[in-house]
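Need residues for this backbone.
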């Protein structure tokens, strides 16, 4: 191997290494700050390794364990049930749209594109969900609005349309019904697309706090993200008020490390879930994005 080919092969590795380090370092920094003493942060600034180790931020956030666990349970339920529900609805819509013999394919696809580009606005949407569907202060209000995302629908529809028609025709000749065709043939060979859309749905459900901020007032239905948002708002208000009144004990409250600790707690399972979808993610996203 010549030195030119060695350099050529080393450049992608070097670039990927730099990108990987750039992605990992912020995560390490957040973890380090969450375990740092507040005085050492003010004295030394942010460091990759804690100068003075402290559990104070986690002790404050986890002081009421039952509230955190309840919020975790709500978030886990919404994420799992919402993702499965969303995938089921998306498949039932995307599969007919992928078949050319479906008479209303073009009007329905136009409707999907139109809703992706335009919407009725926040106020009418809020009124419809609250006053007509009566979903306020229910878990359904955290699930239904994200059940059908137009981009996810187009991704699945494009993947289904790329499946060779010979497979579908052969199944029909053997007497396979449309439901059996979808469940036993189309879905098993669509794992990359389902895994990709499933991962995107999981991230959307888990990270969302906006819907709960708008529609959830019952504290027992707070998801984790909204609870973290409330705690962070309380910390900021506490620090601001204490600074104005000159209360030293509260000014020294570990607000910086508490913010980072909340980021770690809120990220939770999402830090690891991508590893299980990785082998399907690139294939499902590229196939669904390039064709159709």
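Answer:
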């Amino acid at each position: 191997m010549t030195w030119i080919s060695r350099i050529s092969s080393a450049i992608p590795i070097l670039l990927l290494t730099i990108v990987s380090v750039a992605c990992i370092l912020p995560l390490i920094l957040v973890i380090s700050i969450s375990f740092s003493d507040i005085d050492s942060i003010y004295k030394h600034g942010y460091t990759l390794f804690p100068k003075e180790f402290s559990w104070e931020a986690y002790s404050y956030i986890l002081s009421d364990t039952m509230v955190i666990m309840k919020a975790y349970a709500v978030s886990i339920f919404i994420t799992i049930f919402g993702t499965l529900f969303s995938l089921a609805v998306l498949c039932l819509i995307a599969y007919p749209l992928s078949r050319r013999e479906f008479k209303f394919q073009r009007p329905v696809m136009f409707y999907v594109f139109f809703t992706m580009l335009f919407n009725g606005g926040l106020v009418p949407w809020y009124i419809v969900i609250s006053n007509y569907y009566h979903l306020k202060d229910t878990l359904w209000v955290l699930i239904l609005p994200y059940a059908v995302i137009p981009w996810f629908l187009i991704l699945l529809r494009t993947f289904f349309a790329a499946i060779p028609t010979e497979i579908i025709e052969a199944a029909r000749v053997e007497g396979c019904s449309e439901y059996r065709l979808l469940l036993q043939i189309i879905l098993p060979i669509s794992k990359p697309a389902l895994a990709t859309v499933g991962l995107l749905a999981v991230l959307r459900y888990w990270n969302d706090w906006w819907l709960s901020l708008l529609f959830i007032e019952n504290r027992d239905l707070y998801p984790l993200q909204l609870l973290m948002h409330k705690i962070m708002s309380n910390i900021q208000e506490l620090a601001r008020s204490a600074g104005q009144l000159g209360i030293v004990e509260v000014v020294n409250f570990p607000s910086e490390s508490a913010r980072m600790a909340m980021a770690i707690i809120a990220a939770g399972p999402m830090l690891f879930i991508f590893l299980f979808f990785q082998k399907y993610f690139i294939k499902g996203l590229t196939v669904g994005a390039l064709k159709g």
